[in-house]
Write a structure and sequence with these properties.
By secondary structure, the chain is mainly alpha-helical. The protein is 69% helix and 0% strand.
Length: 475
């Protein structure tokens, strides 16, 4: 009896709410603000802090390939119906195609209505084409056939060495299917991979401890190098892009969320720590492992999360698509280049193709824009020099929109496939954090007749980054 009371007391102590400064999202927010201040008042020092952000991104990229491999393989190998893998993949691609196209159309329509580049009357011959030559050269190498061939790695190990998300995903699906086909004989391998998954996600949690340092260095570099004032002359484009992306998330994706029985605002609150991390680093990859774990803990099945989220990083780029059509029309308006309906439809179709695989390219948004303009000769590629200075400030919004879109995709595809625990999703989004075992039981499951409700400790405030360790209750 005494031991039981002692155990309950220990659990209550472990569940004691954290102080506000102990939550990662608060630490990242403070770090981002500090980076802005430092970069503004000490620009040279801010620019010199670039290695802090780069080091954190490298740490995250180090574990992305193992996270994808282990999540996908253990998810597929644990499925008895391999046809389900194909169905999930097909439904995900349909979702990506529909909403990527919708994002392109939204960007096109808003740019026509607002016309952020109208009245600038810039002569394309006066622009510095050399400033964008490197991006245009890279864009020339980005072809649809080359992209599809690039999904297949040269060797199984080269996929992990290069860190290419689609190559790792391709090999992981094949490995998972192969392991599933041998049945019970593969149980020891599957058991080993599940244990390894726990180890890798513990590494994720360790790496995320230094997220504030990475966000601080990345933001200080951005402001120190480019300056806050550098966006003043193009504030119309930047502001229009941010408002359009916000409209797409809250209205378009919000409507989809309501149709699927949840609130987009609650989803944003649930992943707020990851969104702040993306904001600080301008890279949605920095929060990929965290997003995958959080979506699984919110009620989406592991196979769906493992297939949808990594694939979405190359095929579901809502923010990038909005940016591409809006930036292209801005350049046309600024250079007084007339674009008829036919030209704009061609622009949209080309952007649909060139945007695929953009997440695997450094400076992806700018490079894919160059690839799009290269096929639409009426818009001068040299006009990209107009937005080169502010592209870095728009990249944060691109990444944030892409990130929310991929979280949405995981939930919607899981629901379509019948692989979504709706009660768990509702309880998790209502709490705004990953639920520990006791709290989840109190929220989701009703007590059986004649039995007392499971004991639950006081609610834990805040959102732990990447959820909780993959096994055991949250700390």
């Amino acid at each position: 009896m005494a031991q039981g009371l002692a155990g309950q007391g220990a659990q209550a102590g472990a569940a004691r709410p954290k102080k506000i400064y102990q939550h990662l999202y608060v630490q990242v927010l403070i770090a981002v603000a500090a980076g802005i201040v430092l970069g503004h008042f000490y620009p040279q020092l801010g620019a010199d802090l670039k290695p802090l952000g780069d080091a954190f991104i490298k740490l995250v990229k180090m574990i992305i390939a193992p996270v994808i491999f282990l999540t996908v393989v253990t998810g597929i190998a644990g499925m008895s119906d391999l046809e389900k893998v194909g169905r999930v993949g097909a439904k995900a691609m349909i979702y990506f195609l529909v909403f990527s196209t919708l994002a392109l159309i939204v960007g096109l329509v808003i740019a026509n209505l607002v016309q952020p580049g109208a009245g600038m009357h810039i002569d394309p011959a006066s622009l510095d084409a050399a400033a964008v030559k490197a991006y245009a050269d890279k864009a020339h190498d980005q072809t649809l056939i080359g992209f599809l061939m690039g999904i297949i790695p040269a060797t199984a190990f080269s996929a992990f060495a290069s860190g290419d998300i689609l190559q790792v995903l391709f090999f992981s699906v094949l490995f998972g299917v192969g392991l599933s086909m041998i049945g019970e004989r593969g149980a020891p391998v599957l058991g080993f991979l599940k244990i390894t998954t726990q180890v890798v996600f513990n590494i994720v949690h360790i790496v995320m401890k230094v997220a504030p340092i990475g966000a601080f260095g990345a933001m200080a570099f951005t402001i120190g190098k480019y300056g806050i004032g550098s966006i003043a002359n193009l504030a119309m484009l930047v502001g229009t892009f941010y408002i359009t992306a916000l409209f797409f998330v809250l209205v378009v994706l919000g409507a989809v969320a309501r149709a699927n029985g949840f609130s987009i605002l609650r989803l944003i609150r649930y992943i707020k720590a990851e969104l702040l991390l993306v904001l600080g680093t301008s890279s949605s990859e920095s929060a990929l492992p965290s997003l995958m774990e959080k979506m699984e803990k919110a009620g989406c099945s592991k196979p769906v999360v493992g297939l949808v989220v990594p694939t979405g990083y190359s095929f579901n780029l809502d923010g990038t698509n909005i940016y591409m059509t809006m930036a292209a029309l801005f350049i046309a308006q600024a250079t007084d280049t007339p674009l008829g309906l036919g030209d704009q439809i061609l622009l949209l179709l080309v952007a649909m193709l060139s945007s695929k695989g953009a997440a695997g390219v450094t400076g992806s948004g700018f490079i894919t824009l160059a690839a799009t303009l290269a096929v639409v000769p009426s818009v001068p590629v040299a006009g990209m020099a107009l937005i080169l200075g502010v592209d870095r400030f728009m990249s944060e919004c691109r990444s944030l929109t892409n990130f929310v879109g991929n979280a949405m995709a995981a939930i919607v595809v899981a629901r379509w496939e019948g692989e979504l625990d709706r009660d768990r999703l509702a309880a998790t989004l209502e709490a705004g954090r990953v639920l520990d075992d006791a709290t989840e039981a109190a929220h989701v499951h009703m007590p059986a007749p004649g039995l007392a409700r499971p004991l639950a400790g006081p609610p834990i405030a805040g959102t732990p980054i990447a959820g909780t360790p993959i096994a055991g209750p949250a700390e």
